[in-house]
Amino acid sequence: MPELKALAEFLRKQIDDSRLTMTEVASKVGYSKSQTGLYLAGKLPPEEFVTTLIDVTVREPALHRVRLARGRELFLAARSPSISVGQAGASGPGAELELLRAQQVEVYKELTASQRQVNDLLIAQRNSLQLVVVLTGMIGALSDRVESLTAEREHLLEISADPQVMERMQIRLVRALDQEARAKEELQLAREKQRQAEELAVVAQQRTAELIDELDRLRVGDTGQQHAQLAPTEAAGEPAPADLVGDDFETVLARVMAINETDDRTIRRIADELHDPDEDPPAALVQHPAGRPAVVVPVVLDNRQSDSDQAVAAGTAALIAFLSPASGPLLSGMARLGAMTGRNDSAAQAYAELVDRDTRVWGPDHTRTLKRRQQLVQQLSQSGQMGEAERVAAELVKDLARVHGPGHHSTLSVRRLHAEAVGSLGRTAEASALFADLAADYSRSPGPDHSDTLRMRELHADAVASLGKTAEAAALFADLAADYSRVWGTDNVFTLPVRYKHACLVRETGNPQEAKRLLEKLLPDARRRLKPFDSLALQIAATHDSFHPTNPDDTPNK
Question: How many C-beta atoms lie closer than 10 Å to residue 96's C-beta?
Answer without folding.
Answer: 17
